[in-house]
Amino acid sequence: MTDSLGTLVIDTEACKGCELCIDACPPRVLRMTTDQVNERGYRYPRLLPGCIACKACTAICPDFVFQVYRYEQPQTHEAGA
Amino acid sequence: MTPPEPEHRTRLPVFVDTDAPPDAPARLLHDFTPALIDVGAHHLCPGCGEPIAMRSMVEQVDELGEVSRAIAVFGIGCYTAYSNNLDIEVLQALHGRAPSLATGVKRCRPDTLVFTVQGDGDMVNEGLQEVLHTAARGENVTCFMLNNGVFGETGGHMTAATVLGQRTKNTLEGRDAARHGHPIRLAELVAALDGAAYVARGAVNNAVNITRTNRMIKDAFRTQREGLGFSFVEILTMCPTGWFVDTVDAPGYLDSALAATHRPGVLKDARKGLEFRTPAPKGSTT
């Protein structure tokens, strides 16, 4: 089980698959899709539990695909691999 | 009897639902696009650093409460068409001539916040004298240079700011000093002029550098607001297409190649009494 301090809404159709958010994320909870693409054919990021709502992903994103929320109380999610 | 599945097969990633806002009580910290960017979608390549830099600029305009007084003057480059996405006044200059147009605007309307947005090709190649004379005259305007070391819009060829060893469309073996000359470090040139009050160089290749660059942009605007003279911020941006590197490797390439020649930092700040001195050569102990 992993606590999340925040979460994201990801506009996957706006993503161009540059992967800048993957390395920018301090808790490293973003993963690119491997077999799913958006309408334009780009892979896009998905979120694992453990987001800290630090806004690093949205700071680096050239395509403004992230909405960042901070939970009022940390939420417990089932941990990913 | 079947052996148990290895743990890495049984524990598949469990992703969080990111299609809609959370059900649990939560506060929105950041919406998709900043307030002054009307349309997030743009034509720029994946991994481009220019939208990140322009977002920093308009965010600082917003934070300083100067939205109704801000007038941007755009040069020619990939970023030019991005002016359509911005919710601020934008004038379009001829190639390299934005500092002179900004001078005219500021002299006619001294109450406005005037800034130029130019690339390294536009500012260092096409209009080097425009920015140098504007700085030397101490015009009370701010100039921003998005430096990626290539003429991105017209095909990705070398600019005067391309660093040694950098591959571009017409320096496929890397820029060579004997054949192509040495890069111009514009921030150092501008900082050496007496009319320049604030000169800094930032980068947008990671969250820390973006935060530093935001502060530089805000300080440049404050310098203009206080009427201290010319302010200049050079922003190193990624251009994976022009550099022939993967988008994910571009921030690292910026650090190892561009930032080694064009070194980030505040070079001059009249508000804080920071005078310009020539940076020590790389590797020196002084």
Detail the topology: elements first, then pairings:
The complex is a heterodimer of chains A (81) and B (286).
Chain A (H helix, E strand, L loop, with lengths): L1 E9 L9 H5 L5 E3 L12 E3 L8 H5 L5 E12 L4
Antiparallel strand pairs in A: 1-4, 2-3
Chain B lengths: L6 H4 L15 E5 L19 H14 L6 E5 L14 E4 L5 H11 L4 E7 H7 L1 H9 L5 E6 L2 E2 L5 E2 L18 H4 L5 H6 L4 E8 L3 H19 L4 E7 L3 H4 L6 H12 L3 E5 L17
Parallel strand pairs in B: 2-3, 2-4, 4-5, 5-9, 8-9
Antiparallel strand pairs in B: 6-7, 8-10
Summarize the structure.
The complex is a heterodimer of chains A (81) and B (286). The termini of chain A are close together.
Identify the notable features of this structure and list them briefly:
heterodimer, A: 81 residues, mainly beta, Alpha-Beta Plaits, two-stranded antiparallel sheet, two-stranded antiparallel ribbon, 2 helices, 12% helix, B: 286 residues, alpha/beta, Rossmann fold, seven-stranded mixed β-sheet, 10 helices, 10 strands, 31% helix
Task: Write structural notes for this entry.
The complex is a heterodimer of chains A (81) and B (286). Chain A is mainly beta. The mean pLDDT of chain A is 92. Chain A has one domain: Alpha-Beta Plaits (2-Layer Sandwich), CATH 3.30.70. Chain A has two helices and four strands, in the order E-H-E-E-H-E. Chain B is an alpha/beta fold. Chain B has a single domain, classed as 3-Layer(aba) Sandwich (Rossmann fold). Classes of the chains: A mainly beta (81), B alpha/beta (286). The interface between A and B is large, with 49 and 47 residues.
CATH homologous superfamily identity of chain B? Thiamin diphosphate (ThDP)-binding fold, Pyr/PP domains
Oligomer: heterodimer
Task: State the strand order across the main sheet of chain B.
Answer: 3-2-4-5-9-8-10
Provide the residue-averaged pLDDT of chain A.
92
Q: How many strand units of chain B?
A: 10
CATH T-level topology of chain B: Rossmann fold
User: Number of DSSP strands of chain A?
Assistant: 4
**Rg over alpha carbons of chain B:** 21 Å
